[in-house]
Design a protein that fits this description.
The structure holds 2 protein chains of 2 kinds. Chain A has 12 helices and no strands. By secondary structure, chain A is mainly α. Chain B contains 12 helices and no strands. In chain B, α2 packs across α12, α4 packs antiparallel against α10 and α10 packs parallel to α11. The radius of gyration of chain B is 24 Å and the shape is globular. The chains are: A mainly alpha, B mainly alpha. At the A-B interface, α1, α6, α7, α10 and α11 of A face α5, α6, α10, α11 and α12 of B.
């Protein structure tokens, strides 16, 4: 098991390096010079400017600059936010838990909706339930998250006045009341994100289960006289989960995209809204760092998917 | 095709008299069986028609400011109401639709071009080139797309705007990067198709007759691999429209004076409590377009997948 994990980790390193190359290339190709202001400032003589450039390593060959940047990122020297005057890593650590909680809850909701509905629809293909579920799934993933968000605000906050539509990080209450307020303000963001994800997953689950149901070992299990529920849960669903796990991991980049939008709509103080504010305020170190964190999270979830994969499918040896 | 095989001997006698059906007629016959897809095709055609012809029929300008008609609900003079400057929302929705649909279509073309190119090269070359290209594909699949889209637009928008003007510059940028992040599925599909097709007898026959590699790919393999690619292309249009609307909704797409559907929603979101119509109409347009494109894609999948049996 440990060996398998180490091997997966080693495979993840090239992807991480690849992503860092992509990020650095984008940054290096981008027009605009951090020294633009100094260049137009007549009080600074050209040779001082050149010395400054050299001392900061701006004239080094590009691979040298890439390595410097990479090692700085690895050491945790992520820079200093121009706008909020805080170290970038502190800023991100402050914001990350909120994002993870919202995404995690949404992903749980998506699975709780998609698994039962998908499995039930696949065990009764082309029935009325299957058709309704399929149509609703299409509607679900055709509704962009920003539109569902606005619709939910319109319905629950403005018309019915049940839920708050601005997320507050600080709530002055304790005990049960604190929990209650937090749950209340998380309902809408989690619903928006979770239902979109769930709608896409239902179709994957359904087709994965349909593929397994036809296999011989399922017929054998039935012929042994096992009750239908055992056949479905133990012999069908577990095998059908293998492709679903891969798809959930592949969907992660889309989930993060959805999280950025949701955080923006409901003003959740997570790293997604941090990214948007940073872009609007030209806060380059924060933008770079947040993008890199998102990339790392995607790789992390792929790793988790790999581990789950090994647990679900014993044919994949851990060696 | 399985569905069209005659079941009885008597049927085969009459079948011989029936004129031969080409693959495209067969696909159309199967597509028509998907009722929702046909309805969606009609709706999408109407939407495209409305967006293309609409601005000529509905002649109110998109930027006529009229403070006497601020934030009005739907009426005969303004069927979709007005915004906070008294601008007619129907006119803006029609104009924005042109941009959203154009972005969707153009980004799809970019994605298909890159995807087919990468997939075909990987599928034909095999070996190291294939492994490298597939690593690249997997890398792109694990990139966080929206953050990178935002980053690239933030870094390159000003430079490109100076060269070709604000509207065209942003259009080119958005199309290229949305397309550049959507080609991976197509590349995988095309590669898989190439792997199975290049071992088929008809390709071997063509090779034996002395067809060049280029001719093999263009005349014999690619046309037979097009079915899944067309399906993926349809879905890509929907994905690109959503991506563009998302960028505009975050306020980082087209400049503020270009009313794309996402931009309309961005402007409307702070006035939800007293002018809900402002958000609902453009949002419904996005939803309707994307939904009908997705259903058409589903219908096309039925039409091009020969394994699926469609009742005749």
């Amino acid at each position: 098991m440990t060996q398998y994990l180490i091997r997966r980790l080693l495979i993840a390193i090239p992807s991480l390096l690849g992503i860092s190359v992509v990020l650095f290339t984008i940054l290096a190709l981008a027009p605009g010079d951090p020294f633009e202001e100094l260049a137009t400032n007549p009080a600074i003589p050209p040779d001082v400017r050149a010395n400054l450039r050299a001392s900061l390593g701006m004239d080094d060959p590009i691979h040298q600059r890439y390595l410097n940047w990479l090692f700085a990122m690895l050491r945790g020297e992520w820079g200093y936010s121009f706008v909020s005057r805080v170290n970038v890593d502190q800023l991100i650590l402050q914001r990350l838990p909120t994002t993870i909680i919202v995404i995690g809850a949404a992903q749980l909701l998506a699975l709780c909706v998609a698994l039962p509905v998908g499995v039930y629809a696949a065990t009764r293909p082309y029935s009325l339930f299957d058709k309704i579920a399929n149509t609703l799934a299409f509607v679900g993933f055709s509704l962009p998250t920003f539109f569902t968000g606005l619709l939910l605000i319109l319905l629950f906050s403005i018309t019915l006045d049940w839920l708050p539509f601005v997320y507050r990080a600080q709530i002055d209450a304790t005990g049960w009341r604190w929990w209650w307020e937090h749950i209340r303000q998380s309902i809408m963001p989690v619903l928006v994100l979770g239902l979109f994800q769930g709608a896409a997953l239902v179709r994957f689950v359904r087709s994965a289960v349909l593929d397994v149901v036809r296999l011989d070992h399922v017929t054998t299990a039935r012929a042994k006289g096992l009750p239908e529920s055992t056949v479905t849960l133990k012999h069908v669903v577990r095998n059908a989960m293998i492709p679903v796990v891969t798809l959930v991991a592949l969907q992660m980049p889309i989930v993060f995209g959805g999280a950025i939008v949701t955080e923006q709509i409901f003003r959740i103080p997570g790293i997604g809204s941090l990214l948007i504010t940073a872009i609007l305020a030209n806060d380059t170190p924060v933008i770079m760092a947040v993008t890199f964190v998102f990339a790392c999270l995607v790789i992390l979830f792929n790793l988790i998917a790999d581990v789950l994969y090994g647990w679900l499918d014993p044919r994949i040896s851990y060696r | 095709m399985a569905g069209s095989i005659p079941a009885s001997a008597t049927a085969s006698v009459t079948a011989a008299a029936v004129p031969r059906v080409g693959p495209w007629q067969e696909a159309w016959r199967r597509f028509r069986k998907h009722r929702l897809a046909v309805v969606s095709l009609v709706i999408l055609s109407l939407l495209v028609l409305a967006v293309l012809v609409g601005p000529f029929a509905w002649r109110l300008p998109i930027d006529e400011i009229d403070f006497t008609a601020r934030l009005e609900g739907p009426s005969w003079a303004h069927p979709m109401g007005t915004d906070d400057l008294g601008q007619d929302i129907l006119a803006r929705v029609l104009y924005g639709g042109r941009i959203s649909l154009a972005v969707g279509f153009a980004a799809m073309m970019v994605a298909i071009f890159v995807g087919v190119l990468v997939g075909a090269v990987a599928g034909m070359a095999g070996g190291r080139i294939d492994a490298g290209l597939m690593w690249l594909t997997d890398l792109f699949l694990s990139l966080p797309q929206l953050p990178l889209l935002l980053l690239i637009i933030y870094l390159f928008r000003d430079a490109l705007t100076q060269v070709v003007g604000p509207e065209l510059g942003v259009f080119i940028l958005i199309v290229i990067i949305i397309g550049g992040f959507n080609w991976m599925q197509v590349a995988r599909l095309v590669r898989a198709q190439f792997f199975s097709l290049r071992e088929k007898e008809f390709v071997e026959a063509a090779r034996a007759l002395g067809a060049s590699r280029m001719r093999l790919v263009l005349r014999h393999i690619l046309p037979n691999a097009m079915g899944p690619v067309i399906v993926a292309a349809t879905i890509d249009i929907a994905a690109a429209i959503i991506a563009e609307s998302t960028l505009s909704f975050l306020g980082l797409g087209f400049p503020p004076d270009v009313p794309t559907w996402g931009r309309l929603l961005f402007d409307a979101k702070d006035n939800l409590d007293f002018a809900p119509h402002w958000a609902i109409f453009p949002g419904a347009m996005i939803f309707l377009t994307v939904l009908s494109i997705n259903f058409i894609g589903d219908g096309l999948r039925d039409a091009f997948d020969p394994r699926r049996v469609v009742a005749s």
